[in-house]
Every structure is written in C-alpha cells, then in structure tokens.
Design a protein that fits this description.
This protein has helices at 10-14, 39-44, 46-62, 67-74, 91-95, 153-161, 214-229; strands spanning 3-8, 27-28, 31-32, 80-85, 100-102, 105-112, 119-121, 139-143, 165-169, 191-194, 207-210. By secondary structure, the protein is an alpha/beta fold. The strands form three sheets. A six-stranded parallel beta sheet has the order 5-4-1-9-10-11, with helices on both faces.
C-alpha cells in the first residue's frame, strides 16, 4: 500500500469558517498577533491571551469539516495516509482521518506552564485564570506560539521523507519551519499542490498543480490518485 503524506495549512480550515490571522491582516479584534500568540504576550497580559484562545476554541467546536477534509479521510480506504497539519483545530479528526500530526499544537488541549509534558484535554471551550495542572501551575493553551520551538518538526520530517505521494493543501509555504517540509520529499515522489494561489516554490518535475481551494481540489486529487495508482 502506497503512503500519502499531506501537509495542510490555514486555507483548508478557513473554508470551514475558521478565521485566520492571514485573512484578517494579522489582527484579531484589533490586536496584533504578537499581542495574543507569543510567550511575551502571555507574560504581559494573560487574561487577553486566555480570552483569545477561548474564543478560537469556541469557534472550533462549532465548525464542520468541508469536502477537502472528507476527501483526505476517504483516501484511507485505499492508501496509507498521514496528515501533517499546521492547523490547531480538529477538523481532520472530525472528518475521519486517523493519523494526524499537529505541528503547532491543538486548540482542544491545555498544558502545564511548569511541565510541558503535562497535557490535558480541555472539557468544553473555556480555560480560566486559576485553572492549574497537577503540579499546581497555571494551565496554558497547548499551542506553539510565535517564537517558540516546534517540537513535532522532527517527527514531521520523518513522515515526509517516507512519502510515496505528497500533497500540499491550503498553505502558502511561507511559514517556517513548516514550509521547509517540502524540501524533504523524495525527488521521485509526485507532489500535488492545491491552493488558490500556487506557491512559487512549486517548480520542477513531478508537480501537479490545482489552482483552486482545497475543498474542490482535494476531491479531484483523490479521484486522480485512485484512478492512477489502484
């Protein structure tokens, strides 16, 4: 069974109705990204950061997977599929994908500010000041903030290197280190790119470009892969 590795970004979540910083010019209700999604922001105004993620978490619970998410889940019946996502929502899991690696964390989880290994599934959408881990420290969103290391990058690289087929959906390939993952794909592996604006890095052999949203492009790619490889 051939292995498909998929890299997804904010574009596929935006099609389900989730707001992104990129869509809003890097702002959230007038706040710059550095005011709500950095360690410095957490130290400066914990209440604001908690409210920002509470609202994002509340919204994430309300949205549903779109045809792009569903197409990737359906591929599991014919291929081994591994998804590496820059998104912090659970839309891939809701669609039925069983192997999802979250590069930037998960909005539904929280972790200890003292021990990053203490991670908890949050019941509901609200994380409050005073909610503490088992060691007594304040809980924070289980998110990789701007300026923090990306601990799942190495596992993601290993997944990408093992790909027989590589798909990129809903990402501009400009946010690093995630954007560098395409450099680890074997040269002979076909690479399918779907985005309304095709990234400039997609030049060379074995590239198949779909200049459209993930919700329409991924179902087409699914059909093409089933037709060509099975």
């Amino acid at each position: 069974m051939q292995k498909i590795v998929v890299l997804t970004g904010a574009g596929i979540s935006a099609e389900s109705g989730l707001k992104t910083f990129r869509d809003s010019g890097g702002l959230w209700e007038g706040h710059d990204v550095t005011q709500v999604a950095t360690p410095e922001a957490w130290a400066r105004d914990r209440t604001l950061v908690l409210e920002f993620y509470n609202q994002r978490r509340k919204q994430a619970l309300e949205v549903k997977p779109n045809p792009g998410h569903l197409a990737l889940a359906e591929l599991e019946s014919k291929f081994e599929v591994s998804i590496v996502t820059q998104n912090i929502d659970a839309l891939h899991e809701k669609a039925g994908s069983s192997k999802v690696l979250h590069l930037h964390g998960e909005i539904s989880k929280v972790r200890s500010t003292e021990d990053p290994n203490l991670v908890y599934e949050l019941d509901g959408w609200e994380l409050k000041e005073g909610d503490k881990c088992d060691k007594g420290s304040q809980l924070r969103p289980h998110i990789v903030w701007f300026g923090e290391a990306v601990p799942m990058m190495e596992p993601a690289i290993q997944e990408v290197m093992s790909a027989d087929i590589f798909i990129v959906a809903g990402t501009s390939l400009v946010v690093y280190p995630a954007a560098s993952l395409i450099d680890f794909v074997r040269s002979e592996a076909p690479k399918f790119i779907v985005d309304p604006k095709i990234p400039e890095v997609t030049v060379g052999n074995n590239f198949y470009l779909y200049e459209e949203p993930a919700s329409t492009g991924l179902p087409k790619i699914k059909d093409q892969l089933i037709q060509e490889y099975l």
